[in-house]
Amino acid sequence: MLHSNNDMESCLNFRLDIGSVDDARLCDGPTVLLRHNETLHYISTLTAEPVIVPVNFIALHWVGTIEPGELVIFGVKNIDLENAPSPSIAGGTLKDTSYVLYSIENQKSIPGTCFLPDAYSSVICCLQVCTLQGSDGKFETSVIAASGKQLILFSNGVPEEVCQLPFENPFKLQVASTSRGDLLFIVSFSSGDACAIWKDSLKVAVTWQQVRDILVDDFLGAGFDQILLIFKDDPTKSPGPEDFKITDCCEINYPADTDTSKKDESAEDGCQENQFLTVQALEARLQAGLLFLQELQHDIQVKDRVIKTSCESLTNMTQGKDVIVQSAEKEGLTSLWDDSDNCPDSPSSDPCTSLAIPDCFVEKVWYRVIDDLLVVGVKLSNSVYSSLSNVGLSLIMDQEIASISPVTKCQTNVLKLPINASQVFANQKEPLAKKQRLDDFIKDSLPGDFLRRPCSPSYQNDLERTVTAVTELSPLLPLNNTSCVLLLHARRKNQPDCLLRSEKLIVPCGKISLSLEDILKGNYTVNLFEHCQVGCSLEDVFAVLSAFQKCSFHLLSPDYTLKSVQIWLIGQMQGEPVEHIPDIICSRKPGNNQGTLFIWNSKNPFEGTLTVFYRNDSTLLQCLHSLRRVLPPTCAINTTVLGGKDCLTESLAQSLEEELLALRSSVSSAESKVEKELSQRCKMKKNNGTTDSSSDTKERVQKYREELQIEQMQSDLDTPLAADGDLYSKSMLNAVQLQMNSDSLACRLANL
C-alpha cells in the first residue's frame, strides 16, 4: 500500500511453489488471485496462507463484489475435466467449457448462464459486468463482452445489441463513466490499437494507435473517470507530453490535438461573428426580460396596496366611519367607475344615499350551519322589498381579525320555488268516471296529509322577501370568535333603461357574531334528515334550500299517465311533506338519498316538472336511477334550463369567450398566410442565390441579413401587409354574429 507521503506498507506476504502464473488479479480487501493452469489460488488478510479454489478455472473474465461485500469470480471451467483420467485436456472444444460464478465467502459455485450462454465460452475474449443484482441465487445482470470482431451487449444472459469492432483480437475491456454521465467501453487490441465505444448507441467514439497501456481512474479528482493512454516509445523522438494522453471523450482532452486545432481554426474564425451576434441577441432578450420582471413586480405591489386600501375603506363604510377613497391617478391607474359629472340625470353623487331607505327595513337576521357551509339570511320588510330588484347579500368580517381580506367569498340567493297555486287536478278535463278511478287509486296509495296540500301557501310572502348568502365555514373556524357585517346590494325598480349610479344601493343591513363553541355544540346546525319533523323553523327549511344544489326535469309520457311519480315519492323514497311547506317532499329513505327534497308540479296527467334539491351529484344520480325504473318506458326526461340572472351571466361569459376565440383564430389565420407568402419569397430568393456558384458563403449571408433589415424597416414604417379579402370577410362576419349574440344577452341581463 502506497501512502500519500510515499511510504510503502506491506499488507500481504506469501510464497507459492509454482513455476509460472497464467493470470493474476488484485481485488479489494486486498485480495490476490493467482491462476496456474487450471488451479486458482487466493490470499487475503483473512487467510494465513494461500487457499486453493475448488473450481478448476481455465480462464478468469471478471472479479467483483456484490452486496454485502461478497467477492465473486466469474470465469470458464472445463466440464469434462472431472471425468478425464488425466488433467491434460486444458484446451477443450466448444461443448467442453461452460461459465461458472464462484463466491469466495460462501465457497459455492453456480452456473453462469445468467451472465452469458455457455456457447460463447470459447469465443469471448474479454468482458465486463455492468450491473449485477442478486438475491437467493437469482441474478439480474448486464454484461458487455468482446469476441474476435464484435462487441456484444447481454441482458440476463440474452444478447441484445451488437457492434462491429474497428480492429481484431481484443484482449482487454474496461468501463469508464464520463463527465456527461454516459458510459464508455474502452477496448484494447493485441495489435497496439484501442477504441472507445458509447454504451447508449454502441457507436465508436474515437480510436487510438500505438498504445502500450490504458488505465481508467479518476486521476484529476473530478468525480468521474478519465482515460490515461500511454503510447509506445518512439526511438527517433525525445520523451514529451505526446507520449501520453488523458481524456474522457467529452470535456477533458490533454494534451490537445494540435493538428486538429489547425484544421478547425478556419472554421472557428467563420463562426465567431455569428456567435457574437447570437450573444448580443440573447443579452438583449435577457435585459428585456429583466425589465418586464421589474414592471411586473411594481404592478403586484400597486395591486396589493390598492386591495388593502379598498378593504379598509369597505370595512370603515360598513362600520359607519368616514371613508376617503384615493383617486386612481395617484397610483398611475385608470378608474373604471364613472364620475357623477358624466351623467347629468344623476340626482346625487353618493350611490348609497340616492335611495331613501327606512331605518327598520330588515325584519329578521338569522344564520344556520349546513354540513361545512354557513347560510346567512335576511328578511326584508314588505315595503322595501317591493321597491328593490337584483337583491344580493355579502359578508364583511371584522378588520382587526381579517387583516388581509375582510371580504368572504359567498353565493347569494333569492329563494323561488317552482310551485303552482293550482295543483294537480285543477285544470283536468277528463271524463268523470276516469277521474274518479284515478282519485281512488291515489287515495289508496298515498297518505292523507300528502293530498291535503294548501293551494295558496302562506310561506310564499316570507320566501320572496328572504335573501340568503352561502359561504364556506372552514375559513371562519380558525378565527374562534368573530363578527361579520351584512351588506345588502340592490337596484331600484321602475328606472329608465340608462344605468345610473343612483340606482345602485349598498347599505349595511345587520351583523352576526360567530362563536366556535356554539358551532361545535351544534346550536345552529340543521339536521338534514330531520327538517321535515315537528319543531323545525321556516328558516331551517330556507337554509337547506339555499345550501343544496337544484335541478329541474321535464317529464313527458305520451302513452301513460305520470301517477307513478307521486307513488314513487311517497313509496320508494319514503317522502313526507315538510311541516311549513307541504309542497316540498323530504325523503326519509336511509342512505345517501335521506334528506333530499322534491317538488312535483303536474301540468296534466301526462306531463309535469320534478325539481330536486340535493347535496351532491351522486345523490342526484341515485334518485334518477330509481325514478327511471318506475316511469313508463316511453316517458322522456329532459333537463329544464333554469332562467334568471345566473343563467344569463354564464351564457354571456360563454358568448364573450367564443367571440375572443373567433378573433384570435382570424388573426392567426391571416398571420399564417402572410408567413407562408414570406417563406415562399425567401425560398425563391435562396434558389436564385444558389445558382451563382462563384458567390461566397459569407457574402450571401451578409446579403440576406441586409435584405431582412430592409424588410423589417419597411414593415415598421409602411402599412402592414394586407390580408386576403375572402378570409377577412368570413372572419368579420363570424365575429359580428358573435358580437350580436353577446349584445343581446347583455341587454337581457341589464333589464333584469
TrEMBL record:
Region (Disordered): 678-702
GO cellular component, one term: Fanconi anaemia nuclear complex
InterPro entries assigned to the protein according to its UniProt record, in alphabetical order: FANCB (IPR033333)
Source domain of life: Eukaryota
GO biological process annotation, one example: interstrand cross-link repair
Membrane spanning stretches: none
Stored PANTHER family: FANCONI ANEMIA GROUP B PROTEIN
Name of the protein in its database record: Fanconi anemia group B protein
